[in-house]
UniProtKB/TrEMBL annotation:
SUPFAM superfamilies: Cytochrome P450 (SSF48264). Pfam families: p450 (PF00067). This is Cytochrome P450. It comes from Bradyrhizobium zhengyangense. Keywords: Heme, Iron, Metal-binding, Monooxygenase, Oxidoreductase.
Length: 455
């Protein structure tokens, strides 16, 4: 994909690439700190890299056809790795992201009506209300240093709370944020035993994660109990995601979610919804602060409109391209790892049972054979008449297990960025480069301070 650009695009900072000859144990030592820093130059140039992971082969796939095979054509042959299950199960339980087989089919079928474009459109008023409040608060802080990462986290958490339960998160937001921070900093990092032992063999970290899960499940159940206490008027249409999920029934069996299943689904939607969107918005604001000309293009697109509907959001074509390019450079899920259930052929290579397949959006989105100027911030590449290959751009995954909440996340991100940049001019108050690191999601190594001024 060739991109013509009048001005020289910015190239945001990244961690140094690892030596291609780094040993397995050297990589394992780095993984705990920053998975992104374990990949060398070969991983950005070659289509398939084969290696070994203890008793099994490992494959890094950067070939769209091979990725299509693993995520779509033969997806049932691939399951999450033990480390992946260990990292996610304590917070997501057996919700949609981790379910397999019939359980996954039931959940996907049952939840799908809650995430249609029409259902998302009905939730836009919740988003706009929170944005109005956020902008009003920011207006009192113009000219002073502000932590926009923290503000985005609070804002998207509030949107998650209102779209899920129709009530604000003033009371419970700090507790939820503490859960997220505790898990990410202490329990969400892969250790050596997490990667080599079967899931059925508990590691010392698994015991700590189990204690965390007990407290986490009790907290989410309490939120659900509060929402149910509010109730719903007989015959009234669903007013939030909880109504939609609580009333959801499998179209084939008419079965709904049990209380335990509902806890896992709510936890999945709140965490996946607010944390990844907050991170994407932070990176978008950081990129626009580095690139004032592109920031002005976003501001001019809103033309002072008060965006309040899906139709308004859909008109923000350039802002959507900025979000798309942000998630290319900083994909929320930087790595998708799968273990083969049985033998297969992928990209001409023999895959045996237990072999590890790694599809890393971080690598794929910056691969030198797939993208022109892969490390540069060029939103207009997503307005080209030649869109990227569907399996070369995976911010929300692909195939049957593509993220069910993608339309919601995209609408929220575009709306928030358009409204914020339409209201404020944003600059960095901190000259220290922000380096991405991969722990569960693609996070910044620190929260820089920004300075905002009213337009």
């Amino acid at each position: 994909m060739n991109i013509a650009s009048v001005r020289r695009p910015i190239i945001p900072p990244t961690p140094p690439r690892a030596p291609d000859n780094m040993s397995l144990f050297g990589r394992i030592a780095v993984i705990k700190q920053n998975m992104i820093a374990t990949w060398g130059q070969r991983a950005y140039e070659e289509e398939v890299i084969q290696g070994r992971f203890f008793l099994h082969k490992s494959f890094i796939l950067n070939q769209p056809d091979a990725i299509r095979h693993v995520l779509l054509s033969n997806y049932q042959n691939y399951t999450r790795t033990p480390a992946g299950i260990r990292m996610l199960r304590p917070v997501l339980g057996e919700g949609l992201l981790l379910a397999e087989g019939h359980a996954w089919t039931f959940q996907r079928r049952t939840l799908s009506p809650a995430f249609t474009p029409r259902a998302t459109a009905n939730l836009v008023p919740h988003m706009t209300a929170v944005l109005d409040e956020t902008i009003a608060k920011l207006e009192t802080r113009t000219g002073e240093p502000v932590d926009l990462r923290e503000i985005m986290q609070r804002m998207t958490l509030e949107i998650a709370g209102r779209t899920m339960f129709s009530f604000g998160m003033d009371q419970h937001g700090p507790t939820l944020r503490n859960f997220v921070m505790e898990y990410g900093e202490r329990l969400g990092r892969a250790h050596f035993l997490d990667m080599v032992l079967p899931v059925s063999w508990p590691t010392p970290m698994d015991r700590a994660r189990a204690r965390f899960r007990k407290r986490w499940v009790e907290f989410v159940a309490m939120l659900i109990a509060e929402r149910r206490a509010v109730g719903k008027k007989d015959g009234a249409p669903p007013r939030d995601l909880f109504d939609l999920m609580d009333e959801a029934r499998d179209p084939e069996t008419s079965k709904g979610f049990s209380d335990g299943q509902l806890v896992d689904e709510v936890a999945t939607m709140i965490l996946a919804g607010h944390e990844t969107t907050a991170t994407a918005l932070f990176w978008a604001l950081y990129l626009l602060a580095l690139d004032p000309d592109t920031q002005e293009e976003v501001a001019s697109e809103t033309r002072g409109e008060h965006l309040v509907s899906m139709a308004d959001i859909d008109r923000q074509k350039f802002t959507r391209a900025v979000i798309d390019e942000t998630m290319r450079l900083y994909p929320p899920a930087f790595l998708v790892a799968r273990a083969a259930r049985d033998k297969d052929i992928v990209a001409g290579a023999e895959v045996s049972k237990g072999d590890i397949i790694m599809i890393a959006p971080w690598l794929l989105h910056r691969h030198e054979k797939l993208w022109d100027q892969p490390n540069a911030f060029i939103p207009k590449r997503f307005m080209s008449k030649e869109p990227p290959d569907r399996f070369a751009y995976l911010p929300f995954g692909a195939g049957p297990r593509v993220c069910i909440g993608a339309p919601f996340a995209q609408a929220e991100s575009v709306l928030a960025l358009a409204r914020l940049i339409g209201a404020f001019r944003i600059e960095l108050a901190d000259a220290t480069p922000v380096i991405p690191f991969g722990v569960v999601t693609t996070q910044p190594d620190h929260s820089p301070m920004f300075r905002i001024t009213r337009r």
